[in-house]
Amino acid sequence: MGNKFKLLPQLIPLFPENINTFYDVFGGSGVVSTNVVANKTIYNEINLNIVNLYRLFLKYTPEEINERINQYIEEYDLNRQGTDIRQNNPNVKEQRAYYNKNYIKFRKAYNESQQDYLMLYTLTFYSFSNLIRFNQKSQFNMPYGNQCYCDKHYEIIKEWCEALKNKNIIISDKSAFDILENENFESEDFIYLDPPYSNTTAIYNEKRAFGGWTIDDDIKLFALLDRLNEKGIKWGLSNVFRNKGIINHHLIDWSKKYNVIHLNYNYASLGRGNANSDEVYICNYTKEV
Ligand SMILES: C[S@@+](CC[C@H](N)C(=O)[O-])C[C@H]1O[C@@H](n2cnc3c(N)ncnc32)[C@H](O)[C@@H]1O
Question: How many domains does the chain have?
Answer without folding.
Answer: 2
